[in-house]
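Table 4 source record.
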Amino acid sequence: MTEFDHIRQSKVQDLRRMKLICAFLLLVCIMTSVALEYFAPQDKNVIWVFVKGFFEAAIVGAMADWYAVVALFKHPLNMSFLPHTAIIPKKKDEIGKNLGKFLLDNFMQDDVITNKIKGFDPVSKLFDWIEKSETEYRPSNFIKEVLMKLLDNKNTKYINEFARKNIVALVNATDAATILSKIMSIFDNDSYRNSLVNQALGHGLNFILENKERWIEQAKAEGTWGTKWIGGKYVDGFIEDVIQKIIDIQSDANHPIKIELKDKMRVLIHNLQHDPKTIDTVNRFKIDLLENEHFLAFINSSISEIKDKLLEDLGSKNSFLGEHIHLGLMALVQKYRTDNEFNTYLNDLVGQLVKWLLSHKKWIAEHLSTQIQSWSPQDMSKTLELEIGSDLQWIRISGTLVGGLVGGIFSCVLFFIH
């Protein structure tokens, strides 16, 4: 059972208890009045006149107020022919319309709400709460839980689709040639180009050294590279010559091959920036890549892998991301405390939010009216009776006592007149 259900049940019990009290009080008045009629002294004693007048009038007052209270919500004793009864069910639509207008005119005035929000100072209270609660990591743990819910396996399909569409859209909107040329422009000086060529040659050299023995055995066994007829006799020497050639190129900054490679790199950077044919070729390759199912599958698998890593980290006791959320919140609090410009910006943001809400206040009032009008007359009556019914029963009790008091006094007045 929810908290709302508990509250509603408590209101139902309070209303039932108050109705029983009122019924008991009426029953006491009736029984006392009957008893007084039979057993009270018949002499003209003013005290007995007051007491009899009190209980007789109390019965009338109790019945009259019972009728008035019941008539608000339904027809007393189901007598629908009685005029001006079941007022709330009959006036349901009008009540909803007037309540919305009343709320709009009296409680949603721009100046009143704006000043109320400023006096409340929500930004300051929020950061005070974060600073106090973050000592126990409550806000950061809440953010972690929200992130874990968002990344939950139930949402995997939507997350993957959302990320894939946005990655593809971002790549598709990007001029691949321009991006590539900017990346390669890092090497647009002789020192960087020389380093890049040396690294490329180094990787090639390592690749040859790692596979040298396998190639030699393969050449001898299978005659790879056309060497079977000579038994692979010269393969070892050939590979050694290639290795030495690469070493020579690496060690000589002015080696013709190295110069040619650096020149081709310079030409490629220039063409990526200025040659329409090269630019078009790179961008067509980008389009083909985006339409390739293997590339799209790679994006999806990468997204899933990243998501799983995030979930694993967020779920761990010593979460790296969780700790940085904590540090980020504390840094945000510190920035708010020390940066007046940031402080002003946040308060202005709250002000803009309030203005936006106030610009929709008519919709809020209309929503309230529409919601009430959508209720059935019975639901409207039950809801209002639960909210104010207990207090209305006090009117019945007051009517019983006040009616009795007035009746007793009036009986005494008549006694003295006669």
